[in-house]
Structure to design on (279 residues):
């Protein structure tokens, strides 16, 4: 008796599945490029939030906008917005009163506890039934202003005092599993870069307390900040240029004032200018 192989059914993906696969590959490529470019900006100490949110809006079809928000931690959730950068064609900006309402509603938002605990990517639909959520005051306050019926969050960094999120809003449909995988890949290099920058900033701030003798009584880090203040730069602009936190800039200025007994920033700059002329 001969053993003749019998051909079984052969699976062939239909056109829709092939198209979906190609779309997924294109989005993954875009997501990686966005994450890498943002990470490079972070490592260089440059602002990254505006370009990141604009590119995410386009790549992930966030028709209700995207935003980067740094929240202050409060126990298992958050309670105060420390920084906010939003993008999105036609998406209205939040007023001061609206931001205050958002902060009060945050403690009741279903996504914040798991994100604070350690989740990196989360659709609101992963935590609650969306149709019920849409009828809540929390939805109206935090997502209703842009009709962002399908919100998703990507954690960019967290420490003992704050959490940094990228939020994506869609009006028509949720991110699917393939899009969530792409979002996760976007986040990996960016989180690593932000952690590197935080570690570097801490080391720079510690070193900034030590005078090196080349800038009179000031440390090199203090002299670097004073020089920019003398040009009329704001604390925010200096922080972005040097890759420091704004509190790090203020710390260097306070340390420099203490060294020479200056009572104000203006007096510090005046004495710095006289020192530079003498040299």
């Amino acid at each position: 008796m001969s053993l003749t192989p019998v051909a079984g059914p052969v699976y062939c993906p239909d056109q829709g599945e092939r198209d979906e696969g190609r779309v997924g590959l294109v989005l993954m490529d875009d997501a990686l490029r966005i994450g890498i470019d943002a990470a490079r900006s972070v490592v260089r100490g440059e602002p990254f939030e505006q370009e990141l949110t604009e590119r995410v809006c386009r790549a992930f079809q966030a028709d209700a906008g995207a935003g980067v928000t740094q929240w202050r931690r409060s126990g298992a959730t958050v309670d105060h917005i420390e920084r906010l950068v939003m993008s999105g064609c036609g998406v209205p900006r939040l007023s001061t009163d609206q931001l205050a309402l958002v902060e009060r509603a945050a403690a009741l938002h279903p996504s914040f506890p798991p994100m604070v605990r350690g989740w990196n990517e989360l659709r609101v639909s992963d935590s609650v039934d969306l149709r019920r959520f849409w009828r809540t005051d929390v939805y109206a306050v935090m997502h209703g202003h842009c009709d962002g019926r399908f919100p998703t969050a990507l954690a960019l960094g967290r420490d003992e005092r704050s959490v940094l999120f990228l939020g994506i809003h869609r009006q028509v449909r949720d991110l699917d599993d393939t899009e969530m995988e792409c979002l996760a890949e976007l986040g990996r290099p960016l989180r690593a870069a932000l952690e590197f920058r935080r570690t570097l900033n801490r080391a720079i701030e510690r070193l900034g307390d030590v005078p090196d003798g080349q800038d009179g009584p000031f440390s090199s880090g203090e002299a670097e900040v004073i020089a920019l203040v003398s040009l009329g730069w704001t604390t925010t602009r200096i922080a972005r240029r040097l890759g420091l936190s704004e509190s790090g800039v203020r710390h260097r200025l306070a340390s420099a004032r203490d060294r020479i007994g200056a009572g104000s920033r203006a007096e510090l700059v005046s004495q710095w200018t006289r020192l530079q002329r003498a040299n």
Remarks:
- The longest helix spans residues 177-207.
- The chain has two domains: 15-203, 208-278.
- Confidence is low (pLDDT under 50) at residues 1-12, 209-213.
- Strands lie at 66-74, 77-87, 121-123, 150-158, 162-170, 211-215, 218-219.
